[in-house]
């Protein structure tokens, strides 16, 4: 594996396990078997390394969502269609070995970490596309409400998929052991409910 890719992979794991603030460049360098000069040569700084970690998988999520959204057209699009398009690309990152990335982004989002600026623009563009489609499904609902739903869907998706095993441990019992597919399916159900909003009480 090339030095830059090895540094990104090691940093992704350490940042997710310990938190970005608790990981020094020296720790990344030692775990990757490189020297400090290599980190500065490829990334310039710790922030540059973090940006590289975040952007790599973010591009995969964005392209996956773009692909799924492109298939959704016409009046028959449902909240569940949008929930699938929102959640499944993150699941694909997990399946591709990106569990540490999902956990890291979820942790940074939960703490309001400014380091997410590297991918904020890309996510904002995709979120705007989802909000536009939600507006068609929920005419009359305030844009601020739809943005709130998007943010909650994002928090939930990253929290659950950032540690699927934790969710399984919380829910497992003898009569119904939960597997990863169960977790994802139920996550899509809940994101669907978030996108759909409360039932009409009129």
Account of the 3D structure:
The protein has helices at 3-18, 25-32, 36-43, 46-70, 79-95, 99-111, 117-137, 143-162, 164-171, 180-196. Helices cover 76% and strands 0% of the residues. The protein has a single domain (55-196), classed as Tetracycline Repressor, domain 2 (Orthogonal Bundle). Pfam families: TetR_C_30 (PF17939), TetR_N (PF00440). It comes from Pseudonocardia eucalypti.
**Estimated helix fraction:** over 70%
Count of alpha and pi helical runs: 10
Largest sheet at a glance? none
What kind of oligomer do you see?
A: single chain
Distance between the termini: 60 Å
**DSSP, total strands:** 0
CATH superfamily: Tetracycline Repressor, domain 2
Domain HTH tetR-type: 1-61
Protein name: TetR/AcrR family transcriptional regulator
InterPro entries: Homeodomain-like_sf, HTH-type_TetR-like_transc_reg, HTH_TetR, PsrA_TetR_C, Tet_transcr_reg_TetR-rel_C_sf
DNA-binding region: 24-43
């Amino acid at each position: 594996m090339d030095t830059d890719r090895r540094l990104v992979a090691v940093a992704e794991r350490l940042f997710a396990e310990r938190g970005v603030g608790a990981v020094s460049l020296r720790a990344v360098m030692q775990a990757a078997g490189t020297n400090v000069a290599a980190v500065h040569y490829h990334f310039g700084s710790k922030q540059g390394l973090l940006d590289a970690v975040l952007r790599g998988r973010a591009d995969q999520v964005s392209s996956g969502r773009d692909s799924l959204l492109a298939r959704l057209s016409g009046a028959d699009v449902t909240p569940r269609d949008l929930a699938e398009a929102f959640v499944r690309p993150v699941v694909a990152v997990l399946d591709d070995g990106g569990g540490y990335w999902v956990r890291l982004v979820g942790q940074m989002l939960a703490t309001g970490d400014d380091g997410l600026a590297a991918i904020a623009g890309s996510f904002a563009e995709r979120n705007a596309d989802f909000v536009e489609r939600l507006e068609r499904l929920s005419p009359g609902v305030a844009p601020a409400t739809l943005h709130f739903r998007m943010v909650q869907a994002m928090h939930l998706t990253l929290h659950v998929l950032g540690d699927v095993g934790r969710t399984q441990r919380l829910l497992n019992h003898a009569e119904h052991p939960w597997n990863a597919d169960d977790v994802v399916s139920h996550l899509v159900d809940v994101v669907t409910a978030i996108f759909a909003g409360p039932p009409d009480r009129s």
